[in-house]
Automatic annotation (TrEMBL), chain A:
The chain crosses the membrane at residues 17-38, 85-107, 127-151, 196-225, 245-267. Coiled coil: none annotated. It comes from Marinobacter azerbaijanicus. Keywords: Cell membrane, Membrane, Transmembrane, Transmembrane helix, Transport. It holds the Pfam family BPD_transp_1. Residues 79-268 form the ABC transmembrane type-1 domain. This is ABC transporter permease.
TrEMBL record, chain B:
The keyword Membrane applies. Pfam families: BPD_transp_1, BPD_transp_1_N. Keywords: Cell membrane, Membrane, Transmembrane, Transmembrane helix, Transport. It is a multi-pass membrane protein. Residues 96-297 form the ABC transmembrane type-1 domain. It is found in: Cell membrane. This is ABC transporter permease. Belongs to the binding-protein-dependent transport system permease family. OppBC subfamily. The chain crosses the membrane at residues 7-27, 100-123, 135-162, 174-193, 232-254, 274-300. Its main location: membrane. The keyword Membrane applies.
Amino acid sequence: MLSLNFPSLRRFKNFEFILGILLVGGIAAAILLSGWLFPGGGSDINLAMRLLPPMAESAYPLGTDPLGRDLLARVVIGGEISLKVGVYSALGAVMIGIVMGLVSGYYGGIIDMLVMRFADVQLALPFILLAITFIAVIGGGLTNMIILLIISQWVQYARLVRGSVLSLKDREFILSAQAIGVRDVRILFQHLLPNLIGPVIVLMTLNVANNILLESSLTFLGLGVDPSVPSWGGMLAEGRTYLQTAWWVSVFPGLAILLTVLGLNLLGDWLRDTLDPTGRTSL
Amino acid sequence: MAKFLFYRLLQAVFVVLAVTLIVSFAIRLTGDPAVMLAQGAGSITEADLERIREALGLNQPFIAQYLDFLRGLLVGDLGRSFMGGTQVSDLVGRALPATLALAFASLFVSIAVSIPLGIKAAVSRGRWPDQLIRVLSLIGLSFPNFWLAIMLVLLFSITFNLLPPSGMEGWSSFVMPAATMGIILTATNVRLVRTTMLDTLRSQYVMVARAKGLSNTVVLYKHALRNCSIPLITYFGLQFGGLLGGIVVVERVFNWPGLGTLAFEAVAARDYPVLQGVITVLSLLIITINLLVDIAYGLVDPRVRKD
């Protein structure tokens, strides 16, 4: 694992790290194994068993939804959408952001100006508003949502990387690499990148958490993924109608979001102490 | 200072242009507004559609239409709704106070809670109150705002029947919406207060105040807090964008008659001029607040102006 390379292994007992790993690892494992854990896919409709409270039947530990489907199976399977959106969009944004940040920091000029102005715009326009506009126009769905998240988030990484490049590019090891004629691509990706990746990883962990929150909000509002696919936001939108009579339909999907995001935030916080002691990503 | 002001204003104008351009472009992707406007009007001929396009200026190129929109924006004209032709500025004007009231109530809750908690965390740095506050703040950061809202309704409206579950009538209807956004904002703000306070507590004037024998409360809340207030106000100001984004979602749960509800009604009815108006006004609000915060900061702290 990553942490073996760091002197902070001594802090292994750190409460944040253990709880974070347990939450994220446990939830991710359950989601990845869901095909095997719940062969029915949580889609078996059984109207005779509709809206059963938790623990009423041993087959349904979290109860059933308005169509008599197993809530536990649906909560676990529904996590797949959230994890996909969270991870893919963060990966996409990080790749674009690193390249743009390296180029804009190292060369400056017009690309640098564009990145910084784009950052101004992004700061002024909350993602949720941008998403509402575009999704109302081009439609929701998994791919569109991931693309929107990438468009709105790569700038954060570009700014972070740019700042680090600016502080590193006049250091001796870069100057000597330039002096012996190392090609620019190599300087960017082999000399600069490893020295600035720590804060980027921290930001990425926190962004996955944030993306899961954004995805579930949009789906809850009916602007995200197709309602027929089980997802946490979609289940919450559905469960709200039954809030008076069946609290469990609204409680468990939300709890799943909370625990996943909390796990990622705990890991992000721990990673920040480990990889980014100067606190570039703290505010 | 004049140079800083000029540069900062120029930047704000650029952002306004970019944001309105993005939104107008997105809205234009929706297809022909003339067809949408004519929906439900019975049989419509191509000649009728042409007349509508003429009347709305839709036969102009996109850039000309965008300039028209900007010209309208300068005099507060945001166009007309597709539904009944009401002025968008009237609809937005009616919804804006509800959203702003909720925003300020949430900010108030969050500031009232996060300042004492953040100071407590900073003073007991590394010991259990600090750790506890840190964990609580991480939990607060992890709440989906709409789910927190639903849980508050479940608890206080359905189970205990104490507060109204939706609408905006009387002070009691403010409690849950403001608490929802307030809790989530507090989670971030506690950390900001703690960090800023830790820096301040190391400074010499705090030592002097302590050496004079002033009480702990006076040192913390009078001397230290006042000196923290400038960075804190900046952070609180910069949060406004995120806060409004969150309120848009939370309004939906509480049926709050604000801009978020208006935006979603517009989405459902495909009433794009209204959607464009809401997003333009919200963005202008955020840009203006960021601008004011930056200028205020530049006035107070000369170091900022040099950037």
